[in-house]
Write a structure and sequence with these properties.
Elements (H helix, E strand, L loop, with lengths): L6 E7 L2 E7 L5 E7 L8 E6 L2 E7 L9 E8 L2 E8 L8 E7 L2 E6 L9 E6 L2 E7 L9 E8 L2 E8 L8 E6 L2 E7 L9 E6 L2 E7 L9 E4 L2 H13 L4 H8 L10 E5 L6 H10 L9 E2 L3 E10 L3 E10 L2
Antiparallel strand pairs: 1-2, 2-3, 3-4, 4-5, 5-6, 6-7, 7-8, 8-9, 9-10, 10-11, 11-12, 12-13, 13-14, 14-15, 15-16, 16-17, 17-18, 19-22, 20-21, 21-22
Length: 315
């Protein structure tokens, strides 16, 4: 790089305004970036012989630096990144790079000089996380991340650091679907949480210790009807569930009723029952304008059918 007078040039890269400046005090290049096109820099990057050594961020776009990163090298290899997340001059995050494919991070979230969280990465995938929840500087909760072809399958949790798994979080196509928990730290699952679209849908709990759920909490109608279908598939009595959960007039009769052509409250439901279902069959969840239905076919004729039905209205 040249020495002498300060010099600058502007560039437009990926929708950002970028200003480069070379000082004559040292071969240090400063690059500023304007992310929101207000004519004011939001990021300042400092380079020494083409190596990024410091970055300052104005994340609130108020002209005040509130986040700083410092890059430490050894023999031209990045070995450590120090983070000051509120720009008070004290580092509260550290990223270490012992190998090009490995990284581990340490975080002081309470900003009290004690590490609260440790994270370990292999080829950019988080494989282990440790947390200190009591402030003694030692991890007391450990989570291990299991992948298949770089797709997260499950997280295994040791929640009291006794080297035994207490929690299992399961994923399908990268989306959380189920969380199993042994709340007594004895390896026996007594709480199951199910998710739809990554959001909590319902919780099942075993309160008497027999390994089977006996208490359910639902967070939306679709979750309730989906859970009821699962429970029926596992062997629970349709009549008992209909009496407890269905909001159809047939609930008092265990959900049993006669469906006649042209007399059902929902044409969609009538069509599925009379045209698609066979005796003994349990339907999928049937959505209608009124709510969600679950149907078990008992007997079927040409113009009518005897069924059991559970109805959960929309919210």
């Amino acid at each position: 790089m040249a020495h002498g007078k300060d010099w600058k040039w502007w560039s437009l890269i990926s929708g950002m305004v970028v200003l480069f400046q070379l000082t004559d005090a040292a071969e240090v290049l400063r690059r500023t970036l304007d992310f929101n096109f207000d004519g004011k820099p939001d990021v300042w990057e400092y380079y020494d012989h083409d190596r990024l050594v410091r970055a300052e961020w104005d994340r609130n776009f108020d002209g005040i630096v509130d986040y700083t990163e410092r890059y430490i090298y050894k023999e031209n290899q990045l070995v450590r990144l120090e983070i000051d997340s509120n720009n008070d001059g004290q580092s509260d995050g550290w990223k270490f790079f012992p190998d090009p494919n490995l990284r581990h991070e340490e975080w002081d979230f309470n900003r009290d000089g004690v590490i609260d969280q440790w994270e370990y990465y292999d080829k950019e995938l988080l494989v282990r996380k440790e947390n200190d929840t009591d402030g003694d500087g030692k991890p007391d909760q450990i989570r291990r991340y299991v992948y298949d072809n770089r797709m997260l399958l499950r997280i295994e949790e040791d929640l009291n650091n006794d080297e035994k798994i207490d929690g299992w979080v399961y994923y399908e196509k990268g989306v959380k679907v189920r969380y199993e928990l042994a709340t007594h730290f004895d390896g026996k699952v007594n709480r199951w949480e199910y998710f739809q679209g990554g959001k909590s849908a319902w919780i099942e709990e075993d309160t008497d210790g027999d390994g089977k759920p006996d208490q359910w909490t639902y967070f939306n109608p679709l979750a309730k009807i989906a859970s009821l279908r699962t429970r029926i598939e596992k062997g629970e009595d349709f009549s008992a569930l209909a009496q407890k959960y269905s909001e159809h007039p047939s609930a008092t009769n265990g959900g049993e009723l006669i469906v006649q052509r042209g007399k059902m409250e929902s044409r969609t439901l009538e069509s599925i029952i009379l045209l698609e279902m066979e005796p003994g069959q349990l339907s999928e969840v049937i959505p209608t304008d009124q709510g969600f239905y679950l149907v078990k076919m008992l007997e079927k004729g040409e113009q009518q059918a005897r069924v059991q039905l559970i109805f959960v209205p929309k919210e």
